[in-house]
Every structure is written in structure tokens, then in C-alpha cells.
Design goal:
By secondary structure, the protein is α+β, with helices and mostly antiparallel strands. The protein contains 3 helices and 3 strands. Strands 1-2-3 form a 3-stranded antiparallel beta sheet. The longest helix has 34 residues.
């Protein structure tokens, strides 16, 4: 019997090392993405200040503490669009005025 490793054994370890390297890169990319999300959570997309969650007429939205920008998620926007015109206009005006009924 020879003590020399077979060609297949060398290939196996190269493939295993390459797979571990890919796995580490994937984990690092995922960790980076999660960190970026955490840094930007509840930050104004316009000026970067902290956002405050508010509610008017049962519709939740986020308001910037600095520039007073109002941001709706898709569900809140859809609810506002489905409301009759008078109700929607009143709710929207309250959002812009900063009236909050938390």
C-alpha cells in the first residue's frame, strides 16, 4: 500500500474548501445586509432623521421628526385610497397638520 494520497482525495479537499469559502461569503453578505437594514430602520428617506409612528383615523403612518415628511406603507395608502373622498381628505389633512390620535 502506498502512503501517497490519491488524486481524488486532493480534488475532494479543494471542492470542500471552495464550498466553505462560498458559504462564508454568503453569510458575510447576509450579515452586512442585516446590519444595513438595522442602521436605516425608521429613518427618513429624505433627510435621515428619526421617524415617529402615528395614527389618524385608524391609518398608521410614519412622520419624520425633522422635515415632517409623511410616509405611508402600501396597506395604509390603499386604505386611504379606498376611503370615500371626504373621509380620505380629512384624514390626509390631519396627517399633514401633525394631528395625532395615538
Amino acid at each position: 500500500m502506498t502512503d501517497k494520497p490519491s488524486r481524488n482525495e486532493g480534488e475532494y479537499f479543494k471542492l470542500r474548501e471552495a464550498e466553505l469559502l462560498r458559504k462564508r461569503h454568503k453569510e458575510a453578505a447576509k450579515a452586512h445586509e442585516q446590519e444595513e437594514r438595522r442602521k436605516h430602520f425608521m429613518k427618513c428617506p429624505k433627510c435621515g432623521a428619526d421617524m415617529v409612528s402615528e395614527s389618524v383615523g385608524g391609518i398608521g403612518f410614519d412622520r419624520c421628526s425633522e422635515c415632517s415628511g409623511v410616509f405611508l406603507d402600501a396597506t395604509a395608502a390603499e386604505t386611504l385610497l379606498k376611503a370615500d373622498q371626504g373621509t380620505a381628505a380629512g384624514i390626509f389633512k390631519s396627517m399633514l397638520r401633525g394631528v395625532s390620535s395615538r
